[in-house]
Amino acid sequence: MTYEETRDWIAKNWDESITLREWWRRMSDARLSFPRWPTEWFGRDASQREQNEILRAFGDADVLSGPTGLGVLMGAPVTMTHGTEEQKKRWLPPLAHGTEGWCQLFSEPGAGSDLASSSCRAERDGDEWVINGQKIWTSGALHSSRGMLVARTDFDQPKHKGLTYFIVDLEQPGVEIRPIKQMNGAAHFNEVFFTDARVSDADRISDVNNGWAITTATLAFERSGLSEGAGGGIRVSAGKQAGLLDRETGELVRRAKASKSHPDEHGGLMSTLMSVLPPHGLNVVQRQKMVDLYMNERIAEMTRLRISAAAKAGRAPGAEASTMKLHWTNGLRISRDLGMELLGADGMLTGNDQPAEGTIQHFFLSMPSASIAGGSDEVQRNIIGERALGLPKDVQPDPSTPFRDIPRN
Ligand SMILES: Cc1cc2nc3c(=O)[nH]c(=O)nc-3n(C[C@H](O)[C@H](O)[C@H](O)COP(=O)(O)OP(=O)(O)OC[C@H]3O[C@@H](n4cnc5c(N)ncnc54)[C@H](O)[C@@H]3O)c2cc1C
């Protein structure tokens, strides 16, 4: 579908008086929410280029984007590639229609970069599993109805081998979610406690004790998708928990425009930077940083095309996914530094009455998390070193010791 055809479709279908639920249903029926998904599952098997055209048309039309969130970023591709037919039929429609939001229940207080050290346990009980343990830094858990959970099912296996992957229902008594307050004032992520929570064996993805393979596949989808989606319209949270499904689209657009926007995309950042240019323009060094930002985005675009071509050829995202994550944080870092430099002393003030409505200052406080989220930049460099450059593997203490014998906090 071309840019013009998408604009025509938007002109015929956008209506400020319909609900978000109806808008997402229209987008999904027209296969416009996730153009690169397969035709059998709400997509149109679009090339990266076609998807870019479609996203650009939505961005230019200033209408709401399709559903966003970790469920569609990671949960759907993992279900498509590793789920059973029955799981696809059950989980993909609510994700595609935005009626369900998912979160990622991976990190624990003792298992972040070293995710294979997860100790949240799942024990078999007939057709169900009983879950006990804690997860942390779970983005959007409060608005999610399900979560992608990696849990230890065998403590006698080495740490990478005794893990199993489940899609767990969060709306049950054994699950407690506590928000964590961040230094930018938001409470984007949470602690999640499981006490005798239950998950059906039918909600397990892949074999028992094969969870590590599914976990790394999920992380690769996360990394390759993190920097996607420049343009594509105004984003709102998916899932009934977010409480927006039955609001009118016009109201949601007005609300999004009135609220202080915090750009997380290169395009948005570039225009925010342009809005605080000093009257005498940029000096040579600042111009160079602007060019660095532009080049970073172009290289990311080309890497995205390579990932897309690999996917078409049936290959999962590999080390390219890690380079995409580094492009993303690199762009954010350059923007942050240049933005604060352009603001000068104003950079110390926050609030809507500041230049660019305080966006850059807020961004300055939010940026450190980007280089940690989705696997830290250092860990991405390890992956690139090992998988793309063939360098010796990172030190792996205890690769064959049973997990229960590995000393841990
Ligand atoms: C905004 C945000 C959102 C997040 N959302 C989620 C989510 O939804 N779900 C979820 O499960 N988790 C989430 N996380 C958690 C995130 O995945 C972890 O924070 C991350 O994997 C790092 O783990 P850690 O915090 O335990 O740090 P550690 O692993 O303890 O790392 C500490 C430092 O040591 C470095 N380091 C560690 N190991 C190595 C190594 N082998 N080589 C070189 N350096 C190393 C790290 O780079 C880092 O600088 C989120 C984090 C952030 C910031």
Précis, in short:
With 409 residues, the protein is α+β, with helices and mostly antiparallel strands. The protein has helices at 3-13, 20-29, 48-61, 70-82, 85-96, 211-226, 249-258, 266-275, 284-312, 319-343, 359-366, 377-388; strands at residues 102-105, 121-125, 128-139, 146-152, 163-169, 175-180, 189-200, 204-205.
Give structural notes.
Helices cover 42% and strands 13% of the residues. It is an alpha+beta fold. Among the domains are: 1-98 and 231-253, Butyryl-Coa Dehydrogenase, subunit A, domain 1 (Orthogonal Bundle), CATH 1.10.540; 260-375, Butyryl-CoA Dehydrogenase, subunit A, domain 3 (Up-down Bundle), CATH 1.20.140. The strands form two sheets. The protein has a four-stranded mixed sheet with strand order 1-4-5-8. The chain has a four-stranded antiparallel sheet with strand order 2-3-7-6, with no helix packed on it. Flavin-adenine dinucleotide binds at residues 103-104, 106-107, 112-113, 137-139, 189, 369, 372-373, 375-376, 378-379, 382, 394.
User: Which percent band covers the strand fraction?
Assistant: 5-15%
The ligands found in this model are: flavin-adenine dinucleotide
Spatial separation of the terminal alpha carbons? 54 Å
SSE string, helices as H and strands as E: HHHHHEEEEEEEEHHHHHHH
CATH topology of the domain at 1-98 and 231-253: Butyryl-Coa Dehydrogenase, subunit A, domain 1
Q: What order do the strands of the largest sheet run in, or round the barrel if closed?
A: 1-4-5-8
Morphology call? globular
Task: Give the structural class.
Answer: alpha+beta
Separate helix tally: 12
* Radius of gyration, whole Å: 22 Å
CATH top level label of the domain at 1-98 and 231-253? Mainly Alpha
Please give the largest β-sheet.
4 strands, mixed
- Number of separate strands: 8
